[in-house]
Amino acid sequence: MHFFKSILNRFLFSHLHLKSLWLNIIISFYFTSVLNLGLWRYILVRMDFGWGFNAYLLCFLLPIFLFLLFFLIFSLIILPYFGKAFLVPLILVASAANYAMFNLGITIDPAMIQNIMETNTREALELMTFQAILWFFITGVIPAILLVAIRIDYLPYKREIIQRLKLFCAGLVLITLIGFSGFKQYYFFRHDNRAISSLTNPFNIFRSTLRNIRRHSIHQREFTYLDPAAKRTSHVNDNPSVFILIVGETARADRFSLNGYNKETNAELSKEDVISFKKVYSCGTSTSISVPCMFSVKPRREFNAHKAPYSENFLDLLKQTGYNVIWLDNDEGCKGVCKRVETEQLDQSKNRKYCSNGTCFDEILIDGLEQRLAQIKQDTFIVMHTIGSHGPAYYLRYPDNQRKFKPTCDSNDVQNCDPEGLNNAYDNTIHYTNVVVAKTINILKKFPQLNPGLIYLSDHGESLGENGVFLHAYNYSIAPDAQKHVPFILWMSEGMRKQKHYSYSCLAKQAETGEFSHDNLYHTVLAMMDIESKTYNPELDMFSQCRTSND
Ligand SMILES: [Zn+2]
Predict the structure, then answer these.
(1) pTM confidence score
(2) How far is the CA of 249 from the centre of ligand 1 (A)?
(3) How many CA atoms lie within 13 A of 213 on its CB side?
(4) Where exactly are the structural domains of the chain?
(5) Centroid of ligand 1 to alpha carbon of 374 (angstroms)
């Protein structure tokens, strides 16, 4: 019996015990070092050692400062019962965050937290690679198990309190001294390297979550209408028309051969009479910000994703002025934009031709489009929300017969893909998007009497390993162009140009030189769809200079 008990004890690590002070030192050291690998790499890469003494001083002081900060905080937290209950989940969350920061080059800010909250199962599963699980197990699960198993030895409580008070005061004095001696250097370094605060684990998680909660709670909840007096200047339904807006996903403008990319990713589209706007920038670096923002009247600087669900967007004005608005979704939902219009969620479809394992190729969006158009009796505005180039499993976004560029890296473990294979897989998603958009145009061309038109516009771009950064959702103010520079393709039938008095050659010229953003979409669509509203700003209408008299 005794033998079994000792085996059990041994197995359950109950012979392991540690003084509370030592536990604090070890955990503070663990958080400072292993769980902040992403931060230290960022600092070492960005540090300009030509700065001399200042650079070395900062590199020396920062880890000590962070260690002391952890030590002070944990002195207040390592208490009987409470300590473990708080630290175990903290280690697990910090380990997962550290993995993403170190391996995928992401930063954690309020938008990223919002993004995580809205992640669906498919996205989450695609991110769970063998390496991610192994990393999480070694740096998160094992330390957490050790912490649970360990017995923390506290001194008799009076002595424990006195000892902690003494060390806390000493730590406070030391951290103040260090803070003063390195503040100037830190201030200068941070000025050009602002990602530092969104990389300091786990403070970045707390700060971003709190900001997110605050933004959620302070705004007004009353629903606001854009413009109840908005009306159409053209005759409604006299001659039914159709317009399709294709919302792209994770497509980079610089990967479109129409924009000068050296691989032929737009073979099908370049056969069509399309105009590619070369300099268009997104509102955010993630779907949850960009999609509601591009439909909103608010420009990027004023846009608040938490307020957006409580106000209308241009789809509501289209509906209000007599358009039949339809949202077809093959991505992760419309982020509240399509709430008040007819919606079809296609990614749950069982259509075997396009779908397997819970995702569908984007061609599902045009399955049945021809029949739909043949029956149109009312002015119609269709939004197609594509899954486009959604990573990290780029190789799952296109059917095998569209695998144009080879070899491809057929793995979602993007940071371990060879760059050529990764870029080929990504470029295949762009090629496939080009096929889908070109097919849509060709279906529209069969209905010239509907005076059809189409815009393709991506929600944000993607990093493909440049400077160690992958995926997207980077802090907007410091995000690389790859995540913000998005493709914008316009196609108008002859009928539409004539009916609405647009000069196509003028638009083509505008596309080469003009610089635009998601801020322009609202006003451009309103004008294109002949909607008169006090919310319309002609200066933000991309096409206003190319529209002649309006009978
Ligand atoms: Zn997106």
Answers:
(1) 0.82
(2) 5
(3) 5
(4) 2-216, 232-546
(5) 31
Distance 287 CA to ligand 1 centre (A): 3
Residue 529 CA to ligand 1 centre (angstroms): 26
Residue pLDDT tens, the chain, 551 long: 455 545 545 555 556 889 999 999 999 999 999 999 999 999 998 888 888 888 999 999 999 999 999 999 999 999 998 999 999 999 999 999 999 999 888 888 888 888 888 777 777 788 888 999 999 999 999 999 999 999 999 999 899 999 999 999 999 999 999 999 988 888 888 877 888 888 999 999 999 999 888 877 765 578 889 999 999 987 766 789 999 999 999 999 999 999 999 999 999 999 999 999 999 999 999 999 999 999 999 999 999 888 888 899 999 999 999 999 999 999 988 999 999 999 999 877 778 899 987 789 999 999 999 999 999 999 999 999 999 999 899 999 999 999 999 999 999 888 889 999 999 999 999 999 999 999 999 999 999 999 999 999 999 999 999 988 899 988 898 899 999 999 999 999 999 999 999 999 999 999 999 999 999 999 999 999 999 999 999 999 999 999 986 54
> Helices then strands (H, E): number in the chain?
19, 17
Task: Provide the 8-state DSSP code for 137.
Answer: I
Cα angle: 213, vertex 216, 222; to 5 degrees: 160
Distance 42 CA to ligand 1 centre (A): 25
Query: Residues near 509 by Cβ (< 8 Å), separated by ≥ 6?
Result: none
CA dist 18 and 526 (Å) reads: 68
Give the CATH fold of the 232-546 domain.
Alkaline Phosphatase, subunit A (3.40.720)
Token pair of 10, please? 């041994």
**CA 251 to ligand 1 centroid distance, Å:** 9
Integer angstrom CA distances of residue 446 from 67, 374, 438, 451? 68, 9, 13, 10
Distance 474 CA to ligand 1 centre (A): 12
Token pair, residue 306, equals 């938490």
For ligand 1, the distance from its centroid to the CA atom of residue 363, given in whole angstroms, is 18
348 CA to centre of ligand 1 in angstroms: 18
Question: How many Å lie between the centroid of ligand 1 and the Cα of residue 133?
Answer: 24
Expressed in angstroms and rounded, the spacing between residue 250 Cα and the centre of ligand 1 is 5
522 C-alpha vs ligand 1 centroid, how far in Å?
19
Q: How far is the CA of 428 from the centre of ligand 1 (A)?
A: 17
524 CA → ligand 1 middle, Å: 22
β partners of residue 458: 248
